[in-house]
Amino acid sequence: MLFTSAAVTGSLLTLYANEPNPQIAASYYAIGRAFAHEIMINCAVRVAGVFMISTATLFLHTQIGPCWMSFLGYGLAPAMLFRVSYIDRLDWVVLFLPLWILLISVYVLIDNYRRQVKATL
Fold first, then answer.
1. 22 vs 16, 26, 27, 28, 66, CA distance in Å?
2. What are φ and ψ of residue 23, in 5° steps?
3. What whole-number distance in Å separates Cα of residue 50 and Cα of residue 81?
4. Is 80 in contact with 62 (CB distance < 8 Å)?
5. What's CA 20's distance to the chain center, in Å?
6. Cα 77 to Cα 88: distance, rounded to the nearest angstrom
7. What is the pTM of this model?
8. Three-class DSSP labels, the chain
9. Among residues 73, 74, 75, which one has the least CA distance to residue 102?
10. Are 101 and 48 spatial neighbours (Cβ–Cβ below 8 Å)?
């Protein structure tokens, strides 16, 4: 799907570059920009939600992190999967993945530091 969207956007931008009439070229550019924006916003957020679900499942099965962190990922992912892009109040949902990854990273750093302190004692 993303390959197809890249092909459509690329073809619209090629039409924009080859069009001698500036008014028509501007409409090609506007359509290509709007199409690329919609694909990146809608598809990328949903892909991030799927990534959160798969990573949370991996954490739950391998017990790398605590269970609450996996369940937090399961709780945040549906908001990313089912968000409506035209509601302005839901634009902050995009921050769920980076904040969840930050939480995981801080947990891993603290866990490794505790292991090093125990090993030296």
1. 9, 6, 9, 10, 58
2. -70, -40
3. 7
4. no
5. 38
6. 19
7. 0.69
8. CHHHHHHHHHHHHHHHHHCCCHHHHHHHHHHHHHHHHHHHHHHHHHHHHHHHHHHHHHHHHHCCCCHHHHHHHHHHHHHHHCCCCCCHHHHHHHHHHHHHHHHHHHHHHHHHHHHHHHHHC
9. 73
10. no
Phi, psi of 19 (to 5 degrees): -85, 120
Q: What is the CA radius of gyration of the chain?
A: 21
Confidence of residue 56 (pLDDT cuts 50, 70, 90): very high
pLDDT-based confidence at residue 26 (cuts at 50, 70, 90)? confident
Q: How many residues does the chain have?
A: 121
| Nearest CA among 93, 42, 79, 64 for reference residue 56 | 64
Crossing angle (nearest 10°) for helices 22-38 and 2-18 = 160
